[in-house]
Every structure is written in C-alpha cells, then in structure tokens.
Amino acid sequence: MLPFAMGRYALHAALKASGVGPGTCVLAPAYHCRSMIDGALALGAEVAFYRVTPSLGADLDALAKLAAHARRPVRAVIAAHSFGFGQELTAVGDWCQAQAIRLVEDCSHVLVHPVVPTGLGLTGDFGIASPNKFFPVENGGLLWHRPQWPVPPAARGSSPLDELRGAWHTLQRARVGRAGVPAADQTALVQPPAATGGLEAGDSECTAVGPSDNFDARLCNASGQAGARWLAAHTDAAAMAAQRRRRYQQWMDAARQWPEVQALYPALPAQVVPYMVPLFLRSRVAERFQALKYARVPLGRWDDMAVSDCPVARRYRLALVHLPCHQSIDDHQMDWLLQAATRAMTGIR
C-alpha cells in the first residue's frame, strides 16, 4: 500500500492514474462526502452523479445510462462502502471492465488493517482508505492498485517538525477522544427554536464547480507522517473494532424506541466495523435535527453535497444523520449520549 497525507489525496492519485484530467468525466455516487469529488475537480474533470439505492449501493442501470449520455469520456467510477458497510461491487466491476473504465473503490469509511479482515477493497482497479478516521492520528491515507495500473508513490515526506507536531496533536486527541461528548453536567440550557419546515434557514446546495476548501493541492504528493503510520500499525485494531461494534449496537437498541427514526443498517454483519451510525429521520426533519443539536449530541450530515437528480440522495441530504460510535467513547459518555438523544427524539411526536 502506498502512503499519502490523507485519503482525499490518495483518491486524487488513483484518479490521475486512471487517466482523469481536463476533458474527461468521473462518475461518483449521488450521496457522497464533499471530499470524495475534490480530487476529480482538482484534476479539471467533470463529475457526474449516478443514482444510489436506499442502502447506498450503486444503481447499475442508472450508472450505465449516465455513462452513455456523458458529455465527456468517462475514465473512472468511484464506488463507496459508506459508513463501513460493504456494497456488492462485482457487477459494477464487470461493467467497468467491459467499458474500459477504471473502478476506484472508496474504503475511506472502512477499517483497513491486517488483523481485521473485512473483505472490502478487492474489487476495484484502485482502492483508497483513510486510517485517520479510525486511529487517533491527524493524517494518513492509503492507496493500493492492480499491477497493470501503476501509481507513483508520493515523493515528499514529513519534516522532523511536522512529525513532532503530529505526535503532539495525536497525544492530545488520544487524551480527549474524538467523540466530542460533553460532560454529564454540561446539559443544554438553550431551548431549540421553532422548526422552520423543510430546509433550514440559510441552507443551500453545493454546485461542485471546484475543490472544497479542505483540499490542499500542495499535499497531493505528500506521504504523510511516519509516526501516524507507526501508531496505526501498533494499535490493537481488534479491540477497537469490537468497541465500535458495541457502541453501534447500543445506538440500534435505543433507536428502535424512537418514533419516526429508522436505522439505515439495523443489522450489523460479522465483519463490519462501523465508521458512524446513520439514522434516517422520516418526518419533521428540521425539528428533529435541531433537537439533537441543541441537546449537544455530536452528529453530522452531508448537507453540502453536490446537486443531483437522485431521489435517495435528495432525501438523505438533510434527513440522514450520522452519530458517533468511536472507540474513545467510554461507558459514562455513552450513557449520556443515549439519554440525551432519547430525550430529544421522544420529545417530538
């Protein structure tokens, strides 16, 4: 595996090796993290978005139609295993091979580690991962590829100062964790405002005309910090995976009692190590989202994704929220999270 500073730069390198550049097109899932398309846009390519199924798998018929009507030659398809839940990509891989299109498997939500085999990342011509999403390190990206599609390694390593700074930041992250969970006595004192209906005030959709502010072209050829790679290699990944699975199941047990809230993946297959907990708010989305935010429950959603005509992505953009299941959440914090979220969700009928 080739190291990069971040997963987004590993993805940039994979797309570049696929022949992506000005005058070409990349097909990406309509439901996506904004950083997924930064690499293609930085290379000057057009990005078109294929429809996804309710479980976030690729709609192969829609993908084929999109490619057939693309204004520019399609060089690559990005397929993602969102939230760590694997998607069946055999048919997509076969179609890409028949069309001479490179398949880039986005495993940025997958724990890629030798002692935790997930079976993911083996279908595409290229695969990328983001270890910093799981380990308490500030950077790190991985890229692997089939022999017939070589990728030059990142040439620039970290300076001694960068390594020291990264070690310090890693120590700080390990001390405070990454969940952002308030202490038990820090309950919300502010009442949420009245719900405003569909879109929240000031809400807008990204039109994807260029890379986001999080993409730094200077890091495209950087290999990241050696210290971060060492720490990831020497972490007890099996224990980390077990803890994430435990936290995920606790969220599932609680969410079953919440009205109008549905887990995207209620079952947790044996080899899945969840990155986040995706929950779908079936009604009164703005009000439920605000209730969770004002209860100080750390959560996110991809409301800045690019515009598409995919009905699933349009529904999920605001209504699919992501809750934490990070291994750093201790039992006391998890109890607080479940109680705060339950109060917020059961207070809305």
From TrEMBL:
UniProt xrefs under InterPro entries: DegT/StrS_aminotransferase, PyrdxlP-dep_Trfase, PyrdxlP-dep_Trfase_major
Molecular function, one GO term: transaminase activity
Keyword Transferase: yes
Keyword Endoplasmic reticulum: no
Keywords: Aminotransferase, Pyridoxal phosphate, Transferase
Family in the record: Belongs to the DegT/DnrJ/EryC1 family.
Protein name (record): DegT/DnrJ/EryC1/StrS family aminotransferase
